[in-house]
Write a structure and sequence with these properties.
mainly alpha, Methane Monooxygenase Hydroxylase, Chain G, domain 1, binds copper (II) ion
Amino acid sequence: MEPELKKDAALRLKVIAGHLESIRRMVDQDIYCVNIMKQVSAVQASLEQVQRILLRNHLLTCVQDAMKDGMGTPIVEELIGAMKYMPFSAGEALGPDHALSPLVEHPLCHCHSEQTPDNVQTIMKEGMSHGHQSP
Ligand SMILES: [Cu+2]
């Protein structure tokens, strides 16, 4: 794994393990259900954060390597299958610092038409006004 991401994931998992142990004690001591549910929900959120880190690592390392080695299609197929392990939206997956900008000015692939932010705006506006016309 990428060293920074590995450190981050390991630390979060350690905190989660401690949190789980305190939840186990809460159950043991017959603490009020709703209070335990709140703690379980916090652990679930922390685990989702670990999933995001793992996904980020996978995309930056394994997926990139596989593509360089001509294994692009199988690794993307595997990734599509792995989407069931991602209980969050694609935007959240990369974290707020890496959120996709609303308009991509320069696509990194060659399978789309030439476009400028201006002509994308124009297409959007035309579509919107069309939608508001009554038949
Ligand atoms: Cu990976």
